[in-house]
Amino acid sequence: MKYLDEFGNPDLAHRLVEQIHAVTTRPWAMMEVCGGQTHSIIRHGIDQLLPSGVEMIHGPGCPVCVTPLEMIDKALAIAAHPGVIFCSFGDMLRVPGSSRDLFTVKSAGADVRVVYSPLDALKIARENPDRQVVFFGIGFETTAPANAMTVYQARRLGVPNFSLLVSHVLVPPAIAAIMESPRCRVQAFLAAGHVCSVMGTGEYPPLAEKYRVPIVVTGFEPLDILEGIRQTIVQLEAGEHVVQNAYPRAVRDEGNPAAMAMLRDVFEVTDRTWRGIGMIPASGWRLSAKYREFDAEQRFDVDDVRAAESPLCRSGEVLQGLLKPHQCAAFGKQCTPRNPLGATMVSSEGACAAYYAYRRLELVQL
For the purposes of burial, counting CB atoms within 10 Å of the CB of 8, is it exposed (0-12), middle (13-18) or buried (19 or more)? Predict the structure, then answer.
C-alpha cells in the first residue's frame, strides 16, 4: 500500500498547504498542463485549499480532448470501411464526431475493437492477413513511443495490412501558443510529469526564459501537485522564471534516450490542428518517409474529410484556460457524459468531465 497512499498523506498535505499560504502575498494564476492533473486537483479539492487569489487554470493536456474533430471523422470513415478492423483505446469510442461516435459505427456493424496496447492491434493484423487493421494513435509524447515501436515492428516483421491513424501532439508548442494568445492570463505552468519522463526537461528552459514564466514539472498525486504549486509560487514571489523538477522519482532531465531515439526514427514534426484551439505550427508528429506506407490517412484517402463543431460547445475555450467548464451554458444540460457535445465532457482526463463528476452538485447549489 506504500505507493498507493504515500503521496496522499493528509498530514503532509496540510503542511504543504500551510507553506503555500505562508509564502503567498499576491494573486497568481498558473496552468496545470495535464488533464490527469486537472482531475486530481478537482477530485481532491486542491484548488479550494489554496490562498484566495491563487487560481488554477486548466490546460489543454487531455489527449482525447485535443484530438481534432476532423480526425475523429476520419476515424469513423475508416472504421466503417468494409474489411477494416479498427482498434482503439476505450476512451476514444464515445468521443463525438460531427454526427456520431465509434460506438455508433460499431453498432451499425463495423468491426471496432478496444485494445490495451497498439501491439495488440499488430497481433490482430498478423492473425487476420486478409483484413486491414488500423490503430488510432492519439496523445502526447507519453503514448507516442509505444505507437512508434508498433510501426517499427510492423515494418520489421513485414505486416502490410497494419496502419496507424496518427494524431500525436506536443506540449512545448502548446505552451508557446498559450503564452502568445492575446487573452492569456497564465503566469506559470505545472508541466506534465509523464511527458517529461519520456522527453526530459530540455525543451522547457527556452520557454521559461522567452515568456518569463516558471515551469515546474509535477506528478499527479495530491502531494506531487501541492509541492509543484509551492515551488511555483516561491518562484513567482521571487520574480524568478526557471524550470524545476518536482517529480524526480519519475523524471530525469535527459528523459528516456531509447524512447526518444525511436520517436526520431518513426516520426517527424508537422503542423497539427488541436480540437477547439486550431492549428499550432510544428506541434505534432506524423510518420516519417521511411514509415509512410503505414499511414492510415494515405491508405484510405480520407484527406478531404471536413467537420464542424456544435455551436453550443465551448470546449475550445475550456482547453485554452479561458473558461471554467461550469461557465458554459450547456454544461450539465445539453452536454453530459451520456450525451457529450465535446470531448472534454467524455474523456477520463477532460476538465468538463472532472467538474461534472466532482463539482456538479456543489455548482447546482450556488
Answer: middle
